[in-house]
Automatic annotation (TrEMBL):
Gene Ontology MF: a single term: oxidoreductase activity
InterPro entries on file: NAD(P)-bd_dom_sf (IPR036291), SDR_fam (IPR002347)
Protein name per the record: Short-chain dehydrogenase/reductase SDR
Species lineage: Eukaryota, Viridiplantae, Chlorophyta, Mamiellophyceae, Mamiellales
UniProt keyword list: Oxidoreductase
Highest rank taxon of the organism: Eukaryota
Family of the protein in this entry: Belongs to the short-chain dehydrogenases/reductases (SDR) family.
PANTHER family: PHOSPHATIDYLINOSITOL-GLYCAN BIOSYNTHESIS CLASS F PROTEIN (PTHR43157:SF31), PHOSPHATIDYLINOSITOL-GLYCAN BIOSYNTHESIS CLASS F PROTEIN-RELATED (PTHR43157)
SUPFAM superfamilies per UniProt: NAD(P)-binding Rossmann-fold domains (SSF51735)
């Protein structure tokens, strides 16, 4: 959950999912704010939640940069997000599994400021996944794509974010954070030896929402940057593509559509009421209460069955490990070391307050 699928392996969308999702209550699709004059970067936005996020931000007047590994697929997706040229949408290459690509993206970013950064791209290396186990530089693939690449990207773009009068850094979270290990060094260099790398990578994203905000506020007391986390909920989208087809069809009936799942990110990126270092969920109830009672039951039954019944938007408590000061500091050190080992010199790190 907090991860999604949209298509069959052949690429055909399951219409039963989209039809069933029309019944979800409490989620109104679309950005409520006027984002004219704002610039947004959405990673992994050629499909699923990322594409819907990019489209809705663009619909509201923002200039949207779709940062994707495949420029070719992104250009096709951009036709939808741009409404055939009516919206201001641009495509830029970004491969989060390659630190060189992350640096190249930041260097190629030509605008004076950045208002919204949605770190949406994600990889779930479980079930039928047969892709690479490590990034180009040899880091665990889930931690590298979901967290380390995004950390470096955020750090490099932070000077641009600082120039906005209301910047948002939105990290995609997941309820797997309630199960994730905060022994992050186990999921750092080399392929993960366990199946917990996805949950740990998402816990790292959530923990860094807290830690990065704390450090930014300490270094720049009057900053206008809000680091927040957004859990899309139980969504039928592309990240489940390697799972059993029968399971995917069942998910399609119970789950939210990618557009509905994108609303947590869209709201977190745009609403004026958003608070710093906060997790937002697509529910009108506090799911954390269920997870505190019984994590297994909340994950297996609560998320799928309650997604539509209590669909909405609101702040919720994070998994306790996301706020552990000691492990958050250790994660920060690992993240900074990753940046230094992959092309950021000491002077640049110091300038970024890393």
């Amino acid at each position: 959950m907090g991860a999604t699928w949209a298509s069959t392996p052949s690429g055909s969308t399951l219409s039963v999912a989209s039809n069933a999702n029309l019944l979800a209550m409490g989620i109104k699709v679309g950005c409520a704010e006027n984002l004219g004059g704002k610039i947004a970067v959405v990673t992994g936005s050629n499909t699923g939640i990322g594409l819907e996020t990019a489209r809705m931000l663009a619909d509201s007047g923002a200039k949207v940069i779709m940062a994707c590994r495949s420029v070719e697929r992104a250009r096709e997706a951009a036709k939808r997000a741009s409404r055939d040229g009516k919206n201001d949408v641009e495509v830029m290459a970004l491969d989060l599994s390659d630190a060189e690509s992350v640096r190249a993206f930041a260097e190629a970013y030509k605008y004076e400021k950045l208002d919204i950064l949605v770190n949406n791209a994600g990889l779930n290396a479980s079930s039928g996944y047969r892709g690479p186990k490590t990034t180009k530089q040899g880091y665990d693939i889930c931690m590298g794509v979901n967290y380390l690449g995004h950390f470096m990207l955020t750090a490099l773009l932070m000077p641009k974010l600082m120039k906005s009068d209301d910047a948002r850094v939105v990290a995609l979270s997941s309820v797997t954070t309630w199960f994730g290990s905060n022994k992050y060094h186990y999921y750092y260099k080399g392929a993960s030896k366990t199946k917990g790398n996805y949950g740990s990578s998402k816990l790292a994203c959530l923990a860094m929402t807290v830690e990065m905000q704390r450090r930014i506020d300490a270094a720049y007391p009057n900053n206008n940057v809000s680091c927040v986390a957004a859990d899309p909920g139980f969504v039928a989208s592309d990240i489940w593509r390697d799972f059993n087809p029968v399971v995917r069809k069942i998910m399609g009936v119970l789950a939210l559509s990618p557009a509905q799942g994108a609303m947590t990110s869209v709201n977190a990126a745009s609403l004026k009421s958003i608070k710093k270092a906060t997790l937002y969920m697509p529910f009108s109830i506090r799911m954390s209460k269920l997870f505190k009672l019984n994590r297994g039951a909340a994950y297996t039954f609560g998320m799928p069955l309650l997604s539509k019944i209590f669909a909405g938007f609101g702040a919720d408590a994070m998994a306790p490990r996301a706020k552990n000061a000691e492990t958050n500091a250790a994660l920060w050190d690992l993240s900074v070391q990753f940046c230094k080992d992959n092309g950021l010199d000491a002077k640049k790190c110091e300038a970024l307050k890393l």
